[in-house]
Fold this protein.
Amino acid sequence: MKKECVGMLLAGGEGKRLGLLTKKLAKPAVHFGGKYRIIDFTLSNCTHSGIHTVGVLTQYSPFELNKHIGIGKPWDLDRQYDGVSILSPYTAKEGGSWYSGTADAIYKNIHFIEQYDPEYVLVISGDHIYQMNYQNLLYQHKATGADATISVMEVPWAEASRFGILNTTDTMQIYEFDEKPQNPKSNLASMGIYIFNWKTLKSYLIEDNKKIDSAHDFGKDIIPAMLQNEQKLFAYRFEGYWKDVGTVQSYWEANMDLLEEDLSLSLNNKNWRTFSHDTNYPPQFIESHAVVTHSLINSGCWISGSVHHSVLFTNVSVDDGASIKYSILHPNVKIGKNATLERAIVMENTEIPEGLHITSPSDHEPLVIDQNSLELMMSKS
């Protein structure tokens, strides 16, 4: 049962800033990229990186997420002695509670990690879009003799205050860490991807759990405590594409990014495939008079109108005269005749009636629509 490294995937965030997208759905279960869920990218990274022991820590609205993960078959994580395990909050004889922070979530699952007696623990998030080989991170961690290694990348200065910001020496050893500082000293941001020596992390988790005033968070509590005690912390610089889809705007941008030819994140990368469930719908059908440009059109779609710079999930229909621009249509969406959509995100099973025009201005967040909000909108008009 002993494993060199166990992955702990944090998938319990509420995702309030995504509005309707996460009203009834855990953030990592939100549809993305035409045929995926957001969590598929992190799970696929684990598979490609040879991390086959993965605990997925769920909390808010987990039903759809749990159903999607299942026994982990699409990611080759349906294994007898390790594979993927769903770790929800539970109540034991001595009492239980919700996860109160990222570190608390790991603390409450120490028993899960201990059964594999690992040397290292990889802590990752289920709500980021990126492709990374975690073995490269682990290799640097071992080479530097670090107690913890944090994956980092440079972000625009204007966005730096949204992240945990690090300052490092020339050798990438971390000497300062500020969680979401108002006046950041650098733009080197934590990606929320960590590798810890398990014995060291375990001792900090146990100590942190005793502190009443702690937020029980890696960025706010565990990392600063390790720095204060002069533990060896190093930064691992990541150069590829990475997106935290924490807002409607960033979610829309990340989907639109997939349409850029020079983007480093390629869903067509045969050496690093993103795995998910196959819906087994028939191939897309695009009528001869339809116009489709610069878009992702998935299986089961029937296109009679025009689609430009948009992402269409499975089983979407666009009727005659309808126009779709810069939009994201989730599975089973129906667009009626002569309807117009621009900069909109239409959620699963929504039917846009004939002749309806919906446009979101470029200086506003794209509009998110489900069947209930659509009916409310129409009743007011």
Observations:
- The CA atoms of residues 330 and 348 lie 5 Å apart.
